[in-house]
């Protein structure tokens, strides 16, 4: 009987260990005290269980044209992310991969729509809205239409704020785009695209956010991002829901 128990007990312990819930993987923090987050196209509330305890510091979500087929950041989602202890990063993106989209007038209109959506979710004054230039813009576009687009953004936010822009402007794009817009003080923050082959990107280090690739620790579609210093993130009051 004792021999049988000596054989059975280790087997039972092994079975119990194998059936125990496995710990949720935590995304490793970046070196140097930087923040780590993700950008994603869909509502982050749909992946609430994976975000809990993930170790992420922020979630970047989009303001969009009403014509977009993708969901914009909503007030409920903003409260949920904030209630989880993570920051939000706001980015405007619509037809941002089309060179013909960029003009002063389009920048002005995009800024007004981004402002309205930011107000709807409760984004606080002084935080940032990034505007995307989602293609490898050549110099003629950067110096021409893209520059005019960001001048329109500045004018639109100034008008929306009654003479003083309520939000700081960020630019998402290549190293060349980031360098030029920040150099002209048309952007306060820069978000470097993960497309390393784009113009000026390989040697660009003056970023506030740097986009990377997807991690296998999360099952849904996303991009990883590192942030350093002040990157324009924010939280909103969490009155109704939390992750």
Provide tags for this entry.
243 residues, eight-stranded mixed β-barrel, 6 helices, 8 strands
List the helices and strands and how they pair.
Layout (H helix, E strand, L loop, with lengths): L1 H18 L15 E5 L8 H4 L6 E6 L11 H9 L3 E6 L11 H18 L6 E5 L6 H22 L7 E6 L1 H9 L5 E4 L16 E3 L11 E5 L16
Parallel strand pairs: 1-2, 2-3, 3-4, 4-5, 5-6, 6-7
Antiparallel strand pairs: 1-8, 7-8
Helix pairs in contact: 4-5, 5-6
Please sum up the structure shown.
This protein is of the alpha/beta class and 243 residues long. It contains six helices and eight strands, in the order αβαβαβαβαβαβββ. Helix 4 links the parallel strand 3 and strand 4 (128-132).
Q: Which parts are unreliable, with pLDDT below 50 for 5 consecutive residues or more?
A: 18-23
Major beta sheet summary: 8 strands, mixed, barrel
Secondary structure class reads alpha/beta
Mean pLDDT: 88
Adjacency order of strands in the biggest sheet: 1-2-3-4-5-6-7-8
- Can you count the helices? 6
Strand percentage, roughly? 15-25%
Please tell me how large the radius of gyration is: 22 Å
Q: Determine the oligomeric state from the structure.
A: single chain
Helix content: 25-40%
Broad shape? globular
List how many beta strands DSSP finds. Answer: 8
Order of helices and strands: HEHEHEHEHEHEEE
């Amino acid at each position: 009987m004792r021999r049988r128990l000596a054989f059975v007990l280790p087997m039972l312990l092994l079975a119990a260990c194998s059936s125990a819930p496995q710990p949720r993987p935590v995304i490793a923090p970046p070196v140097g005290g930087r923040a780590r987050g993700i950008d994603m196209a869909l509502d982050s509330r749909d992946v609430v269980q994976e975000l809990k305890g993930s170790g992420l510091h922020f979630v970047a979500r989009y303001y969009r044209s009403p014509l977009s087929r993708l969901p914009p950041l909503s007030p409920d989602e903003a409260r949920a992310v904030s209630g989880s202890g993570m920051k939000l990063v706001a980015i405007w993106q619509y037809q941002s991969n089309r060179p013909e989209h960029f003009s002063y007038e389009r920048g002005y209109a995009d800024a007004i729509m981004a402002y309205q959506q930011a107000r709807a979710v409760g984004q606080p004054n002084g935080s940032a809205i990034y505007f995307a230039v989602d293609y490898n813009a050549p110099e003629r576009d950067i110096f021409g239409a893209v520059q005019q687009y960001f001048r329109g953004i500045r004018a639109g936010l100034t008008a929306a704020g009654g003479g003083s822009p309520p939000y700081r402007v960020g630019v998402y794009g290549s190293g060349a785009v980031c360098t030029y817009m920040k150099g002209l003080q048309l952007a306060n923050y820069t978000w470097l695209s993960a497309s390393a082959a784009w113009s000026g990107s390989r040697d660009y280090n003056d970023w506030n956010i740097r986009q990377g690739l997807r991690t296998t620790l999360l099952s849904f579609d996303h991009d990883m991002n590192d942030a350093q210093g002040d990157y324009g993130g924010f939280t909103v009051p969490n009155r109704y829901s939390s992750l």
